[in-house]
Design brief:
- Helices cover 34% and strands 21% of the residues.
- It is an alpha/beta fold and 400 residues long.
- The strands form six sheets. The protein has a four-stranded mixed β-sheet with strand order 2-9-11-10. It has a four-stranded mixed β-sheet with strand order 3-4-6-5, with helices on one face.
- The chain is globular.
- β14 and β15 form a beta hairpin.
- 46% of the residues are buried.
């Protein structure tokens, strides 16, 4: 069978990996942690921490927005706060602006402002926040707000609850009631931990990103390499996505702490097991794990996928569409999908072409096909959203 993912041949750059055995891999600082630290430090310590060139673009966006907010607090003119395509910034800064004196216009890309945010708006309006919704963004008159308790429906995203938690002490909220079906609950725990740290310590360290590390676990599994070291990463982490160490241990990838770094080593396990994993709390891991299942001789049942289409792209639909030509992919419900490995002939005389849908997670996930085939991707620049260092390891070669 000839695989042409986009339905057409594509002649462009052939992309491949440049990684050596035992190499020390540079990761980005966790963007989820860093964004929470930046906002909490601003709110409770009146301080805007620095960001580095190698940090995720999302963190840089939040940093720039906080600087604007700081400059224009209390101003009478309307200040535009443009978060580009950063959904975390859109949801978190909504709460920040609602309690910050000034006139604000919170906006971003067309795709972003059409992503779900209504539960946060309704929760803030219930305590008399001044928010006006438009097709271009949100007009907000920031003012002092008070509430003893708040209720939030977090079934679509844990970020709704985290947005309110970040301002809870500022508005006197002693209780924030979160729906029991809230997705990605470890991120709420992360928010609470960050708040405790920021309020009690003048400085803080931000470890590397476990969501990015998941890519390197899959890379090691699929490659001919035996060992990699992941910089500034800890098995004992407040990041929920650190569960990938446990998941990949079942596939023969051992994780060993080595000072501040993590060494991952491939063991010979023979036949890989069939796995059944829930992604309800770890949705960002779904693309990489799905591609790893397609390219490795193991079957994977993926549960808890109901919120994947609320991410930067319609990830569940894309997963099914793009991976079906390579494996037997069946969708039992709108939250469960199974991938069975099957032998399919793929003609490798021209590069396979994958759309990345301007989604950084698909850049990393689809790049794994380069370990088996000549491939090209429609867009890799968007990977800076979470992992600018990726381009160092995954490069384009002259036309195939």
């Amino acid at each position: 069978m000839e695989k042409e993912s986009s339905g057409k041949r594509h002649f462009g750059m052939v992309r491949s990996f440049h990684v050596s055995n035992h190499e020390i891999i540079r990761l980005n600082r966790s963007k989820s942690l860093l964004i929470r630290y930046l906002i909490a430090d601003f709110l409770y310590n009146h301080h805007i921490s620095n960001v580095a060139e190698q940090d995720a673009e999302d963190a840089k966006i939040v940093h720039r927005c906080l600087q604007l907010i700081d400059i224009h607090t209390g101003g009478s003119d309307c200040t535009a706060i443009d978060v580009k395509d950063c959904g975390t910034a859109y949801r978190f800064l909504l709460s920040v602006l609602a309690i910050t004196p000034g006139n604000w216009f919170l906006t971003g890309t067309h795709w972003l402002i059409n992503r779900p945010i209504s539960p946060v708006i309704q929760a803030l309006k219930s305590i008399h926040a001044d928010i006006r919704e438009t097709d271009e963004g949100l007009y907000i008159v920031g003012k002092e707000l008070h509430a003893i308790e708040l209720t939030i429906d977090g079934r679509e995203s844990s970020q709704y609850a985290s947005s309110l938690l970040l301002i809870a002490d500022k508005i006197g909220a002693q209780h924030i009631h979160i729906s029991p079906e809230t997705a990605s609950f470890p991120y709420i725990t992360m928010t609470r931990c960050v708040l405790e740290i920021v309020k009690s310590h003048p400085t803080y360290e931000v470890e590397s990103d476990w969501s990015t590390a998941a890519f390197w676990y899959a890379f090691l599994l699929l490659s001919d390499l035996e060992e990699l070291t992941l910089e500034n990463l800890h098995l004992n982490s407040i990041q929920g996505d650190s569960i990938v160490a446990e998941w990949f241990s079942e596939m023969g990838i051992a994780s060993t702490q080595s000072g501040n770094d993590l060494r991952i080593t491939k063991n010979n396990m023979g036949e890989l097991p069939s796995l059944c994993l829930s992604f309800l709390d770890y949705p960002d891991l779904a693309p990489v794990l799905a591609v790893a299942a397609v390219l490795s001789p193991f079957s994977l049942t993926m549960n808890g996928l109901q919120n994947l289409n609320h991410k930067e792209s319609n990830r569940l639909n894309i997963l099914y569409k793009e991976l079906s030509p390579f494996a037997a992919v069946s969708m039992a419900t709108d939250s469960t999908l199974t991938i069975h490995k099957q032998d399919i002939y793929v003609e490798d005389t021209v590069p396979l072409f994958f759309q990345t849908y301007r989604d950084h997670r698909w850049v990393m996930a689809f790049s794994l096909f380069a370990l088996r085939y000549h491939i090209d991707l429609s867009d890799t620049a968007c990977v800076v959203k979470s992992y600018p260092q990726f381009k160092k390891y995954f490069c384009g070669n002259p036309q195939f």
